[in-house]
Amino acid sequence: MTDRYCVFGNPIAHSKSPMIHAAFAEQTGEDIDYTAIEAPLDDFAGAWRRFTAEGGRGANVTVPFKEQAFSLCDTLSERARRAGAVNTLLLGKDGLTYGDTTDGVGLVRDLEHHGVSLAGARILVLGAGGAVRGVLEPLLAAGPASVLVANRTAAKATALAADFQDLGAIQGSGFEAVTGQFDLVVNGTSASLAGELPPLPATLFAPGATAYDMMYGTEPTVFLRWASGLGAMPVDGLGMLVEQAAESFYQWRGKRPLTAPVRESLRRAL
Ligand code: ATR
Q1: Helices 238-253 and 103-113: angle between axes, nearest 10 degrees
Q2: Which of 144, 200, 237, 238 has its CA 20 to 30 A from that of 105?
Q3: Which of 108, 163, 99 is nearest to 130 (CA)?
């Protein structure tokens, strides 16, 4: 029987995950069925229960259910525990629900594919919400020289940095306190959605720096346009989307699909 997987979200109609996982399945010869399911806002656990009762083996989880998914897991990976959120659910043979988050490893892999070396890098991360919390553990594990988390609300950045203090050299601040130069600046705020740019000094990119926006779209975000103008290499979040999916696929099926062709076909379809 074909194994069933899905992505849960609300809304979910425009999710690219079914397309991505269909491509992975075809490439690896895995016989899976992957659909998009709109779960009710107040009963994510019920949606997961129904899905597994009908033969569901695993799921991706997106906005706004990552925290509810975290709460229902029987077992959590260390990176999911740190993130406080789960984007990958797996039903074990023992009937237990296992939760992981693959967003951070997705970001790190996409950076690697773009030739960005994180070891010894000075990293600035903009934002202190769920998206940023979800990527800090793998970023710190890659061995940067330092990570500064800067946020509109400074107190959230300092609190977030404190939660990850034991993993490396990480600090938090408001945007106004950002000084010095960085090899990598990651925009994890939702400012791009509003077409806004966080107030930052134009001197923050070191020579050869990379600017990464976790968002993507048909056009470069305002942050990426600004960064390109200052000489940084712009990278949007489309590759992160494909890489986090590949890591979920690996958790479920034990096979690693090639991501570059899938990223390229998604880019053409944007
Ligand atoms: P997500 O899950 O996408 O991280 P979130 O937890 O609501 O969503 O966090 C949104 C992040 O974007 C926050 O860091 C937020 O800053 P505040 O903590 O000060 O609210 C940031 N953000 C949203 N709109 C912004 C804007 N226009 N300029 C700068 N930062 C913005």
Answers
A1: 120
A2: 200
A3: 163
Per DSSP, 2 falls in state P
Residue 83 confidence (pLDDT) above 80: yes
191 CA from centroid of ligand 1 (Å): 7
Per DSSP, the three-state class of 71 is: helix
Cross-strand partners of 32: 3
Q: Which of 222, 244, 218, 243 is nearest to 234 (CA)?
A: 222
Q: Cα of 127 to ligand 1 centre, how many Å? A: 6
For the domain spanning 3-101+240-269, the CATH number is: 3.40.50.10860
How is residue 182 written in tokens?
A: 């960085």
Counting ligand 1 atoms within 8 A of each CB, the residue from 70, 124, 152 with the most, and so the one to mutate, is 152
Helix (H, G, I), strand (E, B) or coil at 14: coil
pLDDT, average across residues 3-20: 97
Domain borders along the chain are 3-101+240-269, 104-236
Euclidean distance between CA atoms 54 and 50, whole angstroms: 6
pTM (two decimals):
0.97
Q: How far is 256 from 239, CA to CA, in rounded Å?
A: 15
Ligand 1: residue whose CA is nearest its atom 28: 191
